[in-house]
Amino acid sequence: MAYEHHVLICTNLRPDGHRSCSGSGAHELLSAAKRKLAKMGEPGTSRANASGCLGRCEHGPVMVIYPDNLWFSCKTPQQVECILDQHLLRPDPQL
Question: pLDDT averaged over the chain?
Fold first, then answer.
């Protein structure tokens, strides 16, 4: 069964010492996304998962929401929660 929205947060750790999403707090953001989705409503309609490298390390941590193909650079759990509120509860075409 497909989800209405799938939230992917890169948790890749680059072994070469270069900037990576994991090294920039991605695991904390993933936890925040999972908590927020659990509070938002119907179980099984949306899911947050860790992903491997999304190829945008310079903007990390990176979050993408499918099927809408919306990409975000998130720095704090509060940003993740705000994006999920605005996009999944009250979609804003300008976001």
Answer: 88
In CATH, the architecture of 5-84 is 3-Layer(aba) Sandwich (3.40)
The secondary structure of 1-45 as a DSSP string is ---SEEEEEE----TTSS--SGGGTHHHHHHHHHHHHHHHSSTTS
The label of the residue with tokens 């990576």 reads: 20
- Tell me the percentage of the chain whose pLDDT exceeds 90: 59
Alpha-carbon distance of 50 to 27, in angstroms, equals 8
d(CA 51, CA 33): 13
- Residue found by looking up tokens 């720095």 in the block: 75
Q: Which of 73, 4, 76, 77 is nearest to 35 (CA)?
A: 77
Distance CA(71)–CA(78), nearest Å, equals: 16
Q: Indicate the domain borders of the chain.
A: 5-84
